[in-house]
Amino acid sequence: MKSSRLLVVVAVLAAAPATAGAADWRLGMEALTDLPLQAGGRWWVEAPYGFHLDTSLGSLPAGYVDLINSAVVGLGGYGEDTATLIASVVSSSLVWRVHVGWRPSAEWGFYFSGGYGMVAMDGEVGAGKLILAVLGQKIAEGVPDANGSYGVSSTVHMIDAEIGYMWSMIDDHLTVRLALGFAGTVASETTIEPRFKPEYPSAVAEATRRSAEYLDGIYTKYLFLPVISVGVGYRYF
After folding, report:
1. Between 198 and which of 10, 149, 204, 220 could a Cys-Cys bridge form, CB atoms 3.0 to 4.6 Å apart?
2. What residues pair up with 186 in beta bridges, in sequence order?
3. Does the model's pTM come out above 0.70?
4. What's the CATH architecture for 18-235?
């Protein structure tokens, strides 16, 4: 009798569905915005037991730069001259983020994740705007190099964390995701080069060095951002 009961229990366990944590593999992509950091696309893959990896690629829109500048200036972080300089630097940009995370239950869309983000920015700024932002003074009239422009490239390295929820609709293929997160700058590398032949090379070299250090200091001090993520996408399986 005992052996019969044991066989029944084993048969029931063998026929039972897998636990919620041991879901199948999932793969999807989405269009997203990470306000105020990027607008672009995101690709994600989820392994059994809810562990997932995602990466996104996009750009930093000018409107988002204005939003960051307005917030920092409003809070007394830096002045309008620096805000104008930063807006000039971000004439083109590339944002890349990669996260690892975990979804505790296959029955729910709640997840949390963390990872790395990189923001690469390029732009051009006039000598007058650069010196005014860095030194707080205008270039004296008659200085030969005062009318030149500079190419500015900055790469900002960030750490990211977020919690969110993903809804699946229409046979589980359409996905809608909402998340709240934080991105903080841990390092920055800026290069500034004159786009003209300086008449005073040593003075220009010193000015570009100080300006690069100034921008790196701004990024590492003030680029700590709350992030609201919204994504709409397609789940392949």
Report:
1. 204
2. none
3. yes
4. Beta Barrel (2.40)
